[in-house]
Amino acid sequence: MATLVLTAIGSVFGGPIGAALGGLVGQAIDAELFKPQGREGPRLTELAVQTSSYGTPIPKVFGTMRVAGSVIWSTDLIERSDRSGGGKGQPSLTRYSYSASFAVLLSGRAISGVGRIWADGSLLRGASGDFKTSTRFRLHLGGEAQTADPLIASAEGAMAPAHRGLAYAVFEHFELADYGNRIPSLTFELIADEAPVAVGVIAETLARAQIDGSGGSGAMTLAGFSAYGDSLRGVLETLATISGGWFAPNGARLILRGDDDASLTPSATIVDPGFAASGDRTVPRSHRLAAIDGVPRIVSIGHYDPDRDYQAGLQRARRPAPGDRHERIDVPAVIDAVAARRIAEAALARAEAGRQRRDIALSLADLAIAPGACVAIAGEAGRWRVTRWSLEAMVVGLELIRLPDPALAGVASSGRVLASPDLVAGATILHAFELPALDDAILAQPRVLIAAAGAAPGWRRAALLLSTDEGARWSEIGATARPAVIGALATTVAPAPATLRDLATVIEVTLAHAGMSLSDADDAALDAGANLALLGDELIQFGRAEPIDATRWRLSRLLRGRRGTEAAAGMQPIGARFVLIARDTVAAIDLPLAVIGGRARLLATGVGDTGGPVEAIAPLDGASVLPPAPAHLVHRITADGARVEWVRRSRAGWGWRDGIDAPLGEEAEAYQLTITLPDGAVRTIETPESRWPVPDDLLGVAFTVAVRQRGANGLSAPSLLAIG
Asked: What is the reported pTM?
């Protein structure tokens, strides 16, 4: 007796490889290729986390899908430090930043390119190819003529491999600040093929032409697939499960056929002679129907959903009959929700149809019916697959399993999608300026404030260089702070005093992009320092902010000339800078006293600055370390004579909390007066008091007096008074 037992392997869905091997006895199929023991096919979870372990299988990627890859080479962390502060009576602050260079293996076959890249789930590289974090990036496509990466070659020398036939990416000086100073978990939108790939083509490629994928199920296309795992057999069975097919012998090869392919025509119509496959005519034919509780009640398909940025999706098919079995099939393929639901429905239909089995005995005339063939039974509806073939006593015995009718297309949804926003960074907008201290601190060194943002919402930060010698030398000073709200003045501004609330002036500004916004502030918030902004060189506060369009805002209920900047009020041209001052959006750099009178030049380089660094220049007039100009200059004539009086101001205590007097804020109270006479003659007078008696020789004479307060670090700006 000769028997080919083509039993199903695995679950109720059948083993599409095992059912075909018997028909290939004596053929030139590599038995090791399809060995049944110990196989493990691809799994969804294995593709989700980046690894760096020896022995990790290398996936072969088809179509387009999101993969994690394996780190195959890296440098140590590269540390940079910048020091700030350390002025008189204050500690210095040293900030450290880190970068790394590394290579990530992506695919075991050549690819066409890479689209988006995610780092810890957030977009690192957008659809337009823009990086959100500063890095150099090189992609090696995996061609056979591929050479070693220059960075790896410079580090490893002649031992650096070219990794021919393997696709990998190299990141050089990848900034790690956004990721806790560690290499983040990266996933890549890998484009191995420019178009979806047929299941049959994938099978043929993997099995080295021992598979014929031209059958009905082989024509099904996948947007992406990762051939992963320690067994080719497991990968092929996964492909058969996806396509709803099985492998049948076809000469010296296996062909992929499909049980849910309505176009699959039975190769033969069997006439049931009415006795069993054993050939014993006294034994009636067998028609078996398995119990319904052996069929899963729910079949789930885990897949990568293109509508969810290739994140894992899950679709279920249910039957109403009793039972509590739940089968899950994970397919490492890019399948939309509707197609995944259809695969689940087809799998459930195969399980239900597979309850019906037939044993039929035929004559030698039917000897050509091969294992795995699709047949029909005369007088009965439906199609059947041959799962067992035997020959005994000149009787051909066939064991058949019922094939399902084609599954109907169902309705499915990917669910709520929380995709990582793809925000373009845009070019850096940089402003640098020296202002009086924004708190009550008494600074001992000049302080430059730096505010930056991007022309688009995706901008996050930029690296900074500083020069205080007109570009002869540049030093790294770290990076900008968080993106500031930045714009430009859109209307003219009238002058207004700093002593009264300006309810008459309305200012309009245009912000850099629509992602920026402003808000109102009540009197209590204004008193606490809210809505402080630099408009040109004048510090203002605004209580009311009204949007006009996506980027244009109208500001009113103003406080003008804050912190001694009243001289700049009304001097702003249209287009003057507008910078909302906030503690976490402004970086501060302390400089030596010797730079007063010079300029600070800054260069900023962000990921969107493809045209080169952006420069900003801050004049260093000492505004941060010098006392403010005296206020309320008056010329009084009394019975005791004429005198000039003024009110001292302090760089400490701008809030005037006690309502009595501001602290001096300097080592001693002293003033310098410059008297300019009509003939151009100049007199310089020093006084420790906030008054000056006019001498008799100047009584009745027209002159101008300029009063400066002398501070620990120099003289304030002058307050002027014309007399006579």
From this structure: 0.74
